[in-house]
Design a protein that fits this description.
Elements lengths: L8 H21 L5 E5 L6 H8 L8 E5 L1 E3 L9 H8 L9 E2 L9 H12 L8 E4 L17 H6 L4 E4 L7 E4 L1 H5 L4 E6 L1 H11 L18 E5 L1
Parallel strand pairs: 1-2, 1-5, 2-4, 5-8, 8-9
Antiparallel strand pairs: 3-7, 6-7
EC number: 3.1.1.31
Function: Hydrolysis of 6-phosphogluconolactone to 6-phosphogluconate.
Family: Belongs to the glucosamine/galactosamine-6-phosphate isomerase family. 6-phosphogluconolactonase subfamily.
């Protein structure tokens, strides 16, 4: 990786997470024809996604979708779809099928039905969901100050359009669909996020720190300074 220290703790972590996720996909491919991987956006996953792309796997039988998406064009640097296409869908993983959440509609509220139609035929439960976490304790687009948080936590629908003060509109997988995965990974870096996670572990108010909704299920935490 140009300009990256491949021996840094974060690069090592990314490689270890990639190997664990690839092993999960490979294990499920032994007894089903297609498997599903759900990944997150933001800056943290880039190294992991690049590392995953280099691992040999029957990628033509792997579907990839997103935990959430900003309602921006794929050409926008903030697009999670753009991140996946530029980092994961290369090398061995070029043959994976990516199913994005953004539609041509002007708002996520208008596009949520079409996006749901795209993802419901995929191989649920997902073999793996790789979550991130913000310094405010959000994961996917489950934000504490989002008016749609209650619905996203309670609905059995696959997707929810969400609005959060100060942020662009988004679409997110519901907690129910994220919970359905066979394996959950949390990929975080930095001392502050470690402290936020430690705080989350000693409380149970999901509406304060939405990451708590995944602490009750087996969650493999991958952290580096």
């Amino acid at each position: 990786m140009k300009g990256a220290d491949v021996n840094s703790p974060r690069e090592t972590l990314a490689q270890q997470l990639a190997e664990a996720v690839a092993a999960a996909l490979k294990a499920d491919l032994e007894h089903q024809s297609r498997v599903l991987l759900v990944v997150s956006g933001g800056s943290t996953p880039a190294a992991f996604l690049r590392a995953l792309s280099t691992l040999p796997l029957d990628w033509t039988h792997v579907d990839v979708t997103l935990a959430d998406e900003r309602w921006v064009e794929e050409s926008d640097p903030a697009s999670n779809a753009r991140l996946v296409r530029e980092t994961l869908r290369q090398n061995h993983a070029a043959g994976a099928r990516f199913v994005g959440l953004k539609t041509p509609d002007g708002t996520p509220e208008e596009g949520v039905a079409e996006a749901a139609e795209r993802i419901t035929p995929l191989a649920w439960p997902a073999s793996a969901v790789v979550l991130g976490m913000g310094e405010d304790g959000h994961t996917a687009s489950l934000f504490a100050d989002s008016p749609e948080l209650e619905r996203a936590l309670a609905t059995s629908e696959p997707l929810v359009a969400v609005r959060t003060p100060g942020l662009e509109p988004r679409i997110t997988l519901s907690a129910d669909y994220l919970h359905r995965a066979r394996r959950h990974f949390l990929h975080i870096t930095g001392e502050h996020k470690r402290a936020v996670l430690a705080h989350a572990m000693v409380g149970d108010d999901v509406r304060e720190l939405p990451i708590r909704t995944f602490l009750a299920c087996p969650l493999a935490v991958y952290w580096a300074p």
